[in-house]
Structure formats: structure tokens, C-alpha cells
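subagent[fold] <- orchestrator: predict structure for attached chain, return C-alpha cells only, no commentary.
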Amino acid sequence: MTIRQVLGTYIFPMFLFLYSVSIGTLVDTKFPQLKLSLGVFVILLIPTLFLLRRSPATKSVVLSVIGLLVAWSLISLRNVLIGYPENANKFIPGILAVVLLAFILYQTEEELGPLHRSFMAFIVLTLLYSVLHYLVIVRVLPVWVLFFGYFRIDILRVSGIYFSPNLLGSFLIIALNYFLFYRKKNLTINLCLLLTTLMLILTSNRGSTLLLLLSWLVYAVLNPRVLRGLVILPVASLAFLVVPSELYSGPLSRALMVFNVLFGVTHDESFNERFSNNVFNLAPMQDSLPAVIFGIGHFVRPTDSDYVNILVDYGLPFLVAVYGLIVWATLAIGIPFRIKTSSEGLKMFVAMTTLDKLLEGMLQGGTISPGVAGYYFAFLGVGLAIFAGRRRSAYAQDPILSVADSPA
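subagent[fold] -> orchestrator:
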């Protein structure tokens, strides 16, 4: 096996699993040594850089990553020097490294088996621990089964291995899109899809509930048979007659609040507080051009919006660069209007998750945390390598395009 194959088959999938487990989860509190996986970045990245395929597209991706890393380093140093080291976003280099490593290590879909197995292992761990958390909350199981700890058990909001239900909801949206659009349906995948949907609802996270509905709606439009299957909903609703109300009343009431807020029936105090905090944090930037360009390095009130966090800490150009590159990579991979092949499934998985994350970043965090979105960024890099590579190959082999580019 070549170095690239060893890294792509064994090292990178294992690293990505450990990295996702050790960032933003309760596992980190029990096993802080897992953060040593951060050091693997350096070990992985240095030899992998020698595997770079020489092409204009590869050079542009690498230069973009290096440019963002340099900008991040300089502005982060500023944040540290002015006394706010906590506002040096530590997730940015992790995201860039994941994208770059995946872009370099994988060239075809046939090579993605180890990455799929790694992702499935992490999803199963997350789902099973979420189920345990729920069963403890409803007093079916004792607290000691939550061996990694727990966020809270006095409210009917499942958070699983994460520090909050919002983070769990943010990750499960990625898992939902993975099962809906990418994986071929079988008993195991359908069971995981069902559990993912249920746990998403049980997070009682209104933002994730909206994204859940959006993903299922898009899937139904792309698969007319799903629309016909919605006739089972009246039958499924009979479950409310036999299931104790305390098992679902909390999540159901919060889910219904989404629609109440959307249609102006009620006011959402949480939304209003978050919006007020965002406005307050952005106020010092309104009359300062340097603050708009470089950020102010700290925010006064807590905010869950990734957009506001990056804008305040790093400035508007950096925010546009980060999300602009994500959108550019998604468009370069392509957006299919049907899903009949695994290639189209990968494209749709990336496109739908990008849309969900762009919407999610407006009010709640987790969009750019590797612990939550590490696998999404890995598949973003994979898709960019595979489909951009195919376009380059087709371009080079097309005699008309080759003649058009040849010197007169």
C-alpha cells in the first residue's frame, strides 16, 4: 500500500473519529488525553502535503487554506494580546486541516469505505448514548448508565454525549442528511434514520426541528414515493393514545412552538434574547471601519450565532472568506436535481448540509465546530477532490477545449 492509501484507509478515519469525540463532548471530561489527537494534525499534515497532486485546482485550494490560516493566526494573535485569548477561534485550523486532508487523501468514491465506517461508528455511538440519556430522563434506567456524564436530566431535552441539546441537534442534522441523501436504504440505515429523527425531535431544539422538516421536505420532493407514504401519518398519530404524554409532551410543545412563532401566534423569548444579544455585540462595530475589517476581538454578551462570533472576533472579510469558500466548494461539487447514483447522493448530502449549516449559523452555534461538523467538512473535501478532479480530467481529454486553450 502507498502512503496515501495507509493514511486514507487507517489513520485519517481513526483520527477523525477521535477528534470528533474529543471536541465539545462529555467524553472529553472523562478522557482529556484524547485531545492528544490534535497533535496528530501535525503528524498527518506534514507527510500528506508531499502527496499533493499538481494541478491548478489543487494549488488554488491549498493557497486558499494557507491564506485563511495566515489571517486566522494574525488576528488570533491580536485577540490574545489585547487580553481575550478565549476569542481566538480554535476550530478554524481544525476545519481547514480536515478539508485539506480529505481533499488530498481521497480521489475516488471507491476509496471512501473506511471514512463511511468511521462516520457510522460515531453516529451509532451518538445515537445509543442519546437513547440512554432519554431513558434516564423518563426514569426507565438509572443515572449510572450514563458513564460519560450528562448535561441535564431534570428537563426533557436530550443532549447525548454533547454539552447541550443544541450541539446534539446540530450534529444529528448532518447524520440525517447522510442517511437521507447518501446512503443506500436497508434495514440498518432505516433504523438509524428513524432514531436520528426521533432524537432530533427529543433535543427540543427549535432550530434543528425546522432543519429536520426542511431536509425531509427536500427528500420527499426528490422521492415522490415518500409523499405517497405520508398517508401513514394519521395512523401513526394514534400512538398518542397509547404512549404516556409525559414521554413526548415537552418536545412536542417546543416543536409546535416553531410553527406558532413562524405564523406569529406567539413570541419567542429565546429568539428575542438571542437577537438582542447579537445587536448589542455588533453595535461597537457600526462606526469603526477597522473594527468591521479586523473585528474587535471580544463580545460583551454571549451569542450562539457563528456569524456574529466570527464577525466580532475576526472581521467581515474573514467571515466572507470562510463561508464564501464553503459555498464555492459546494457549488464546485455540484447540486443534483435527482438522486439515482451514489455520486449524486454525495453531492446532495453536501449541498443540503451546507444549506442547513448556513441557516443554522444565524442563531445557534455548532456550525464550524469540528466536534459537530468534522465529518461534513471531510466529505466536503472529498467531494471537491472527486468531482473537481473529474472535471479537470474531462477538460483535458476534450479535444475542442484543449484546442481552444492551445496557443495560436
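orchestrator: received. Logging for downstream: Confidence is low (pLDDT under 50) at residues 261-265, 394-408. Residues 17 and 122 are 6 Å apart (CA to CA).
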